[in-house]
């Protein structure tokens, strides 16, 4: 099976950039989730759907999962991947700006996945690029492909998204995954709990947008929330994005999920985390039925295969 065709829906993905989750409608996101389900067997056995196509991964910030899963997804679809993960060794070091780098790399690749410390970088790159740009994380702003794989994980684990009570916990201010995920979840009929220290509360622009669509409760502690929710999405405190190290020192280690935290959790609670984890989920939780963060990693391959196939027109 080289092509996955789902009849009855005509949405256009070919040639599109993926910069923000906000660029996608509920119908489009549902379609991505549906295609991902059909893509699942190909993630195991492979395909030649994207034979001859090249992905460039330009990563100006550290990454393990996002870059490797983009590249693995491309290989699994029969394509190949080029790029750099260490901007220090690329011509960036010689002073080349992002726009010029994009105008060069578009000659070598059919699609570019970009991670950059500046929030507007992916949008800027898309303005210059002839080939589609996939945002693999833009500063503290957004991480749309992560949000899509998070939604897919929730759908796969819970069989639905609407009707759930979902908590996002940890660094809601600087964490880009929770910004994208909050926007995406606000398209569904869910109840959202935002749990963070005061200093790391959800950015106002995100909060204002999602509050118009879904009920949102903000809390500074998980205590009263943990027994309420079906999904607990935990994030790392983004130490590298703090303007002042003294601020980080104040809240370091303030969010930690242990077996004790989960005492009153629903039996079928699932815990997700975009990873990397530092100390916000203790290792003793890994062996419980709640922990789904390593399954979530696999879903990253599946969803990125879907996105590459859609953007490059192998699936209509
Ligand atoms: C996240 C990121 O880079 O934003 N990681 C990821 O892509 N899975 C989360 C983080 O760094 O904490």
Set out the fold topology.
Blueprint: H1 26-45, E1 54-59, H2 65-76, E2 80-84, H3 98-105, E3 111-116, H4 121-128, E4 133-138, H5 144-158, E5 165-169, H6 176-185, E6 191-195, H7 204-211, E7 216-219, E8 231-234, H8 245-251, E9 270-272, H9 293-311
Parallel strand pairs: 1-2, 1-3, 3-4, 5-6, 5-8, 6-7, 8-9
This protein binds N-carbamoyl-L-aspartate (NCD).
What strand line-up does the widest sheet have? 7-6-5-8-9
Shape: globular
The CATH superfamily title of the largest domain: Aspartate/ornithine carbamoyltransferase
How much of the sequence lies in strands comes to: 5-15%
Classified by CATH, the class of the largest domain is: Alpha Beta
The rounded distance between the terminal residues' Cα atoms is 15 Å
| Distinct bound molecules | N-carbamoyl-L-aspartate
């Amino acid at each position: 099976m080289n092509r996955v065709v789902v009849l009855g829906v005509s949405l256009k993905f070919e040639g599109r950039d993926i910069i923000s989750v906000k660029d996608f409608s509920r119908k489009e996101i549902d379609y991505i989730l549906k295609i991902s389900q059909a893509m699942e067997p190909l993630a195991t056995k492979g395909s030649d759907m994207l034979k001859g196509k090249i992905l460039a991964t330009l990563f100006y910030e550290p990454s393990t999962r996002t870059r490797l899963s983009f590249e693995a997804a491309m290989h699994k679809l029969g394509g190949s991947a080029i790029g750099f993960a260490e901007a220090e060794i690329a011509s960036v070091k010689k002073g080349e700006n992002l726009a010029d780098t994009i105008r060069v790399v578009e000659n070598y690749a059919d699609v570019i996945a970009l991670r950059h410390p500046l929030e507007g970088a992916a949008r800027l790159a898309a303005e210059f690029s002839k080939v589609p740009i996939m945002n693999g994380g833009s500063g503290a702003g957004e991480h749309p492909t992560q949000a899509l794989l998070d939604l897919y994980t929730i759908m796969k684990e819970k069989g639905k998204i609407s009707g759930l009570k979902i908590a996002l916990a940890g660094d809601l201010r600087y964490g880009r995954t929770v910004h994208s995920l909050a926007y995406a979840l606000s398209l569904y009929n869910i109840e959202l709990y935002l749990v963070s220290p005061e200093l790391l509360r959800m950015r106002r622009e995100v909060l204002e947008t999602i509050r118009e669509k879904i009920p949102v409760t903000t809390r500074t502690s998980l205590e009263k929330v943990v027994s309420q929710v079906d999904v607990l999405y935990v994030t790392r405190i983004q130490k590298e994005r703090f303007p002042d190290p003294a601020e980080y020192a104040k809240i370091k280690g303030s969010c930690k999920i242990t077996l004790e935290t989960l005492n009153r959790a629903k039996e079928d609670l699932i815990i997700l985390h975009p990873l990397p984890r530092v100390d916000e989920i203790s290792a003793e939780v890994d062996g419980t039925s709640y922990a789904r963060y390593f399954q979530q990693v696999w879903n990253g391959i599946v969803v990125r295969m879907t996105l590459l196939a859609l953007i490059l027109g192998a699936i209509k």
